[in-house]
Every structure is written in C-alpha cells, then in structure tokens.
Design a protein that fits this description.
The chain is built from nine helices and 13 strands. By secondary structure, it is α/β, with parallel strands linked by helices. The chain is globular. The model has no long low-confidence stretch (mean pLDDT about 95). The structure holds nicotinamide-adenine-dinucleotide and uridine-5'-diphosphate (UDP). Uridine-5'-diphosphate binds next to helix 5 and strand 8.
Amino acid sequence: MKRILVTGGAGFIGSHLIDRLLERGNDVVCLDNFFTGSKENIRHLLDHHYFELIRHDVTEPILLEVDEIYNLACPASPVHYQYNPVKTIKTNVMGTINMLGLAKRTKARILQASTSEVYGDPHVHPQTEDYWGNVNPIGIRSCYDEGKRVAETLCMDYHRSNGVDVKIVRIFNTYGPRMAENDGRVVSNFIVQALQGQDITVYGEGDQTRSFCYVDNLVDGFLRMMDTEGFTGPVNLGNPGEFTILELAEKVIDLTGSTSKIIKMPLPPDDPTQRKPNISLAQEKLGGWTPDIPLEEGLKKTIAYFESHLKKSPAKV
Ligand code: NAD
Ligand code: UDP
C-alpha cells in the first residue's frame, strides 16, 4: 500500500483522482485550502478508512511522509485564478517549491498538473510538447500561464539538480461531474445556463476552439503517467476532438432540450483562438492511452450530474 498525497484533492479533478486511488487500495491524504474545492466533492470519502483530509495551503510548507504526490492545488478557472492573481502565482511557485521539497526529502515521485495554457495563443496547431508557446507575460491570464510555466521549470530543475522523480502532464480542457456550478468555465456555465433557462453566454463570435476531455479519461492518463519509469514528460493529456465554442453551445442546448437563447458577450483579452492536443507522445509512452469518451457522451453524464445537483442547491452563474 502506498501513501499518496493529492493537493487540490477537494477540487473537480482531484476528487475523481482520489476515488480511483482509493479503489486501487492506496492510502490517500487529501490536502486543500477549499478556495475552489468543496467538502461536497469528498463527503462520500470522509468515513473511508484510508482517506485523510488536511485543510492546508500549499504556499506554506508541510511535513508529511508520503510515497507519491499529485500536485493539483491551483484554481483552474479564469474567473477564480484572476480573483487574486498574486495568490495564483504564489500557489504555482511557492506551492510547487514546497511540494518538490517534500518530494526531495521523502524521495516521493511527484506528478505536476500543468496545462495547455503553457502554449498560450498557439501558432502551432495541434500543439506538440516541443512547441514553446506564445504566452503574453503581462496579461490577465499570465498569473496562471506563467505560473504554470515556472512550475514546470521548477520540476525540471529539481529533477536535474536533486534527482527528484518528476512527471509533468499538460492538461487540456477537462470537464465532468463535480465541476462547481459557479466555476465559470465554459462547459459548466453552458450546462447550468441551459438547465435554468438562462441565456447561453458565448464570448466573442464563438469561433474559438477547444478540445474537451472527459474527467475519467484524464484520470486514467494521470495513473498511467505516474507508473512510467524514466519518463519526466511533459506530456499532453487531452481529447483531440476539436469544437468551436458555438458548436459546444448548440450541443448543450440540443442535449438538454433547453429553450435558452445564445447571446454574444465580449471576448476576454488574450483568449486563445484555437487549442487541440497532439497526443502521439501520450499514446507512445502511456501504453496506448486514448480518451475514448466522446463529447456527447461526456456531456450527457455531466448534464445528469448538474440536473440532480441543481435540484439540491439552485445556483447562479
Ligand atoms: P479546481 O479549481 O476544481 O481544483 C483546484 C483545487 O485546488 C481546489 O480544490 C482548490 O480549493 C485547491 N487549491 C487552490 N489553491 C490552493 C492552495 N493555495 N492550497 C491548497 N489548495 C488549493 O480545478 P481542477 O479543474 O480540478 O484543476 C486541478 C488542477 O488541474 C489545477 O492545477 C489546474 O491548473 C489543472 N488543470 C485543469 C484543467 C481543467 O480543464 N480542468 C486544465 C488544465 C490544468
Ligand atoms: N467561454 C464562453 N462563455 C462562457 C465561458 C467561457 O464563451 O460562459 C469561452 C472562453 O472565452 C474560451 C472558451 O469558452 O474561449 C473556454 O473557456 P474556459 O474558461 O472554459 O477555459 P480556457 O479559456 O481556460 O480554455
């Protein structure tokens, strides 16, 4: 049995990851400051014999004995990471240093949740891992994009200088049950709006593209990456199916049977125009990993979650 630390474990992806780690018979420590995470996401685990919850901020050092670390702590939605941008940078820089220091002391393997945002508004399409990106260093998304880029740098420097066993995954837009209804990202916004009969808020003309990965497929990629030997990454994890935001809005209206109208809102600055992962490296290194849940199927599961969740607690977007 391994003792595994998941930072950001009460968040959307972290809580799904913990479910899988416990199923595999591990001892899991969930660390979270509950900025965007919620106890609701992990309530079903609170009585589990091998689950432990620590309310803690990764920007502060912590002493623990662990075998593996998944470092997910960081708000992921633009609305939340821009709320306190300096804190977002601290979480990515000091938080990652603290977790790499912990990995160094305990000789734990550490997986860093990086992001497709390291490619910025990409000039290479689809994005391959050897592309260095096109990121604005001084814009409103920079606290997150540059924070995650420094986190990758820190991982590689701890690896080269201190022999820390690091794994870097670049996550592309991921969605599924347990996204917060006020998360602000596009899939949860559109579903909540459609279910509540509100206008669907498309930013810009809606011709920008994203590639959406269902959370179970992503978590499977995490587990496979953690089990690789002699491979640090970075590796792209995402579903290569590419859709415009307008197509997504139409799909959500169709699948919910909603009467909501689509309205156009101003496009936020630096919003990337296109995004699609090249996953050849993941397929080669992670035993043929392929996200096999198509958008429509994943959306149906996510809609079902919000249908039952919103009945319990009506939400505002
Ligand atoms: P989320 O906001 O649901 O989860 C983030 C979790 O981290 C929350 O539980 C939050 O409370 C916690 N957290 C934030 N700051 C913290 C701090 N200083 N100390 C301790 N805990 C803190 O987001 P998510 O979608 O589950 O994302 C998880 C990770 O994956 C993040 O690192 C994010 O950057 C990365 N990622 C996600 C996506 C995506 O599409 N979901 C894409 C790229 C990267
Ligand atoms: N978006 C939108 N309406 C919303 C929320 C987001 O049109 O209510 C757009 C946003 O401008 C971006 C895309 O959807 O082009 C994905 O946004 P999200 O915040 O989910 O992720 P990211 O921009 O970080 O990829």
